[in-house]
């Protein structure tokens, strides 16, 4: 393992204070741009249904306010009127315009959320494990070898992405939240399931927690011999890189990372980068260096999102830059079938064309990336391409991961559909009754 360095570049010794902005700050933030009263009301209406949270670093360092509303990080973090169906937007805007009682606004927001498929792909039923007759609602066990852990204290982020498929975690409705603080039962479940070799600590963002709290979830994993890799899902490198530099317990966090590596486990920081603009500040690069000095590996992933990164140029730059910074391009995801998918989703045919064009522009080192990938009910479905087979135009697909391991890496075909945006939009090619034996769409 490389020697961990605590030295910072002299220009990075300042200690910025994290400041969060929430819906009550939205109007003030929008004073930076010229929007009509109607446009402002529409954005407030969206933020009453879907979560909004950003911070001083994103606002002051990442967004080019002269390019708003087209700036990609603005679209990535600020509500857009198209995120709600037009009739739902009008309903919420009318309530806000007439200063309706809070209870009425909350009730309307809840009704709209329930129509936005808040928990796709079996998250609240098919993925929830059972231990000694008890459902462990803060864990997800979709694939035999991998368990996801949702720490209760980590169910927020330094800033929220507008397209986030985990938006139900952040809207203040406890019945929609996946979370646990039962570390003992989590450990017992993992010991009872030796097939689990990898854990993913996720959220929200686990790195909003103090290192002391994060340690309570991570260190017990090191006592389970069958757990060989620990992953931490985070957007903090992009949205608050000072977490690794000058936060009060930044050095403690890096020591925890080094401890995981020293235990003989693979530690992967699953870093969420959406646009190359997030990589340009010097502080991000320094934060990535410090993480890598612990022996941890940074793997970068993010979704293809309309209006933010739906160009081959953006993805090629993102993959080349992360590779140059010592990180590993991992997944390009398809926008999931929840929340504002109708606004941010990119058709699969166009998405694959963007992926292929970007992939062709980068070096072999960056071609570790896989995509476009749908985290659908059966597993991670990868769109490999479009081809003509037996006279029929088809999508060629395979499963990178699956609930049923027998389905992994077996190619299958779907009838070509230029407008399809998700796996459930597809039909088997050649008039077949199913894609593969045992592979169902739902």
From TrEMBL:
Keywords: 4Fe-4S, Iron, Iron-sulfur, Metal-binding, Pyridoxal phosphate, S-adenosyl-L-methionine. Its cofactor is pyridoxal 5'-phosphate. It comes from the Bacteria. This is Lysine 2,3-aminomutase. It comes from Streptomyces incarnatus.
């Amino acid at each position: 393992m490389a020697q961990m360095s605590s030295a910072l570049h002299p220009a990075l010794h300042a200690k910025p204070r994290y400041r969060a902005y929430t819906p009550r700050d939205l109007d003030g933030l929008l004073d930076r741009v010229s929007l009509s009263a109607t446009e402002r009301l529409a954005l407030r209406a969206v933020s009453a249904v879907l979560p909004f949270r950003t911070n001083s670093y994103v606002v002051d360092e990442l967004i080019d306010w002269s390019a708003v509303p087209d700036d990609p990080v603005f679209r990535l973090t600020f509500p857009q009127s198209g995120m709600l169906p037009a009739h739902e937007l009008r309903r919420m805007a009318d309530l806000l315009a007439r200063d309706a009682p809070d209870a009425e606004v909350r009730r309307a927001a809840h009704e709209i959320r329930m129509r936005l498929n808040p928990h796709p792909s079996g998250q609240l039923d098919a993925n929830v494990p059972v231990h000694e007759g008890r459902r462990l609602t803060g864990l997800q066990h979709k694939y035999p070898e991998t368990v996801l852990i949702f720490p209760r204290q980590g169910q927020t982020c330094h800033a929220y992405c507008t397209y986030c498929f985990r938006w139900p975690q952040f809207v203040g409705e406890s019945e929609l939240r996946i979370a646990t603080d039962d570390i003992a039962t989590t450990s017992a479940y993992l010991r009872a399931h030796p097939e689990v070799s990898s854990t993913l600590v996720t959220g929200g963002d686990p790195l909003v927690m103090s290192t002391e709290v994060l340690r309570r979830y991570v260190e017990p994993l090191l006592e389970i011999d069958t757990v060989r890799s620990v992953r931490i899902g985070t957007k903090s490198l992009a949205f608050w890189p000072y977490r690794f530099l000058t936060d009060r317990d930044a050095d403690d966090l890096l020591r925890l990372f080094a401890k995981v590596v020293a235990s003989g486990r693979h530690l992967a920081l699953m870093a969420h980068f959406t646009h190359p603009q997030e990589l340009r500040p010097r502080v991000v690069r320094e934060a990535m260096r410090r993480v890598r000095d612990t022996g941890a590996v940074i793997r970068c992933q993010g979704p293809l999102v309309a209006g933010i990164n739906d160009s081959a140029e953006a993805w090629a730059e993102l993959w080349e830059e992360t590779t140059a910074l010592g990180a590993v391009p991992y997944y390009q995801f398809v926008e999931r079938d929840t929340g504002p998918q109708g606004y941010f989703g990119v058709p699969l045919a166009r998405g694959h064309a963007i992926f292929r064009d970007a992939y062709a522009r980068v070096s072999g080192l960056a071609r570790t990336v896989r995509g476009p990938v749908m985290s659908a009910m059966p597993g991670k479905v990868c769109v490999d391409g479009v081809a003509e087979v037996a006279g029929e135009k088809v999508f060629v697909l395979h499963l990178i991961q699956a609930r049923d391991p027998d389905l992994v890496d077996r190619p299958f075909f779907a009838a070509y559909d230029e407008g399809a945006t998700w796996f459930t939009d597809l039909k088997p090619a050649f008039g077949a009754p199913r894609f593969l034996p045992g592979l169902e769409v739902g």
